[in-house]
Amino acid sequence: QVQLVESGGDLVHTGGSLRLSCAASGFRISESFMTWLRQAPGQELEWIATIYSGNYARRYADSVMGRFIISRDNAKNTLNLQMNDLQSRGTGVYFCARGNLPPWTTRGQGTQVTVSE
């Protein structure tokens, strides 16, 4: 059974950092494109970052470029997202998903990140 479980969400002040993790089971993340998504209150899902299978290339949304880093730990079958210099627009529920294109039907339940002034 394929399952994704996010963790690491918290309340953080503007400019702070946070590291999210996503534990995968039922498949190998090393063999899949993996993506982080964000859903702000009242908004649609927003693509944040993707890490490719194979060559491990990474792509980022312009809004997080230079501040967020997506990575994977194959030994732990875990996807990570290091978030630095968080801003208020970073508030939302963060999801990890399998694949690199919508509708990202295979995703976890999400973890809440709140950025306060």
What do you see in this structure?
The protein is mainly beta and 117 residues long. Helices cover 0% and strands 49% of the residues. It has no helices and ten strands. The protein has strands at residues 3-7, 11-13, 18-25, 34-39, 45-51, 58-60, 68-73, 78-83, 92-98, 111-116. The strands form two sheets. Strands 2-10-9-4-5-6 form a six-stranded mixed β-sheet, with no helix packed on it. A four-stranded antiparallel β-sheet has the order 1-3-8-7, with no helix packed on it. Strand 4 (34-39) and strand 5 (45-51) form a beta hairpin. It is globular.
Strand-helix topology:
Elements (H helix, E strand, L loop, with lengths): L2 E5 L3 E3 L4 E8 L8 E6 L5 E7 L6 E3 L7 E6 L4 E6 L8 E7 L12 E6 L1
Parallel strand pairs: 2-10
Antiparallel strand pairs: 1-3, 3-8, 4-5, 4-9, 5-6, 7-8, 9-10
